[in-house]
Amino acid sequence: MPEAALDALREHLRHLGHVVVAFSGGADSAFLAWVAHDTLGERALAATAVSPSLPGEERLACARLADEWGMRWTEVETDELDNPEYARNAGDRCYWCKDALMTALGPVADREGATVVLGVNLDDLGDHRPGQQAAAERGATFPLVEAGFTKADVRSWSKQLGLSTWDKPAAACLASRLPYGTPVTLGRLSAVERAEAALRHLGFSDLRVRHHGDVARIEVPELDLERVVAKRSDVVAAVAAAGYRWVTLDLAGLRSGGFNQLL
């Protein structure tokens, strides 16, 4: 991607003046947070939303990155699980999640005299993402879209800039592991988090544990399927310890936003 794209991103951020970056620690939000910090300095604030749908490991990763990069950083608590519209887990769950995020970030942005910015890229516009609508309705903007960045562009520039997040696997919120129509509860989110953490400790960095009641359906990239089978005893023990009765492996491999295909 040409240098002009990064220049355009910086110029867009300068035009905004002061920004609060919704910082989940993923490749997109981390790239945006770093560029905002590098461009605006103290006029940029990275903010991480803390709730049961954010894995504890991701929260710690955000803190480490903020310290490593010298960014201004804060945490805000969101209460989306208290909203029945979110908890019932219909196809608009992400709308209510981002609505809760904007409710939490609004006062922060007001104090900063800032605009809330999200790490949405061009590729995200083609998926079922009602959260983008909710954020836009509440005044958030998408600088990566404005500057023409795809996911591949974000990773490429992150690598060039030496950011450790350049090849970090995508990590949607824990609620995305529940099929639409299955209510979101603390217990279910906790089971998914424990199962995925245990599998990462076994060496599987890119994965999803889809929750189907007593059944855990494991998704990994196709190249990792044989490795899961080779470690099946440890895999079964790890996932069963998280509370699942049956442990299955999805032979179709990892599919980001897999449940969106059913809408």
What tags apply to this protein structure?
single chain, 263 residues, alpha/beta, four-stranded parallel sheet, three-stranded mixed sheet, 11 helices
Q: Would you mind describing this structure in some detail?
A:
Strands 3-2-1-4 form a 4-stranded parallel sheet, sandwiched between helices. It has a 3-stranded mixed sheet with strand order 5-6-7. The two termini are 34 Å apart. It contains 11 helices and 7 strands. Helix content is 45%, strand content 13%. With 263 residues, it is of the alpha/beta class. The protein has helices spanning 3-16, 27-40, 56-69, 84-87, 93-112, 130-137, 143-146, 151-160, 186-201, 225-230, 232-240, and strands at 19-22, 44-50, 73-77, 115-117, 208-212, 215-219, 246-249. It is globular and about 55 Å long.
Low-confidence runs:
none
Proportion of strand residues: 5-15%
Number of strands: 7
**What's the Cα radius of gyration?**
18 Å
Helix/strand structural class: alpha/beta
Measured as a percent range, the helix fraction is 40-55%
What is the makeup of the main sheet? 4 strands, parallel
How many separate helices? Answer: 11
The residue-averaged pLDDT reads 93
- Encode the helix/strand succession as letters: HEHEHEHHEHHHHEEHHE
Which strand order spans the largest sheet, edge to edge or round the barrel? 3-2-1-4
Q: Which geometry do the CA atoms define?
A: globular
Distance between the termini: 34 Å
